[in-house]
Amino acid sequence: MAVGGVIGALLRELLEVAVPPVHGFPLATLLINWSGSFVLAWFYTVTIWRFKVPQWMRAGIGTGIIGAYTTFSTFVVETNALLMHGQNATALLYVVLSLVGGFLIALLGSHLGGERREIG
């Protein structure tokens, strides 16, 4: 998992450098967390239902790479910074987009990964 963590952290840093804030809005973190939500849901769905992979590999990729790539702590710090600068509406938009968007994107990832549901 440590190697995965290094990879995930480097990927996050690359995106944070490539995507600057837009009028104070932390777009990079939003995109990181959205893409991480999608990939994690898709990856776990695919590796549970379609392709059996060892648990250590799922943990290395899921917890290691994707866990280090996504960042809840940065989300909280950036939300707090927006609030401290009086950007309450922007902070609220950021929280809603992060939470609701992340959930919906994770559902999409599960769906595209071929999630199976019990009938009955």
From TrEMBL:
Its annotated compartments are: Cell membrane
The signal peptide stretch is: none
GO BP annotation list: cellular detoxification of fluoride
Reaction catalysis annotation: fluoride(in) = fluoride(out)
Q: Which UniProt keywords apply?
A: Cell membrane, Ion channel, Ion transport, Membrane, Metal-binding, Sodium, Transmembrane, Transmembrane helix, Transport
What the protein does comes down to: Fluoride-specific ion channel. Important for reducing fluoride concentration in the cell, thus reducing its toxicity.
HAMAP family attached here? FluC
- Quote the protein name from its UniProt record: Fluoride-specific ion channel FluC
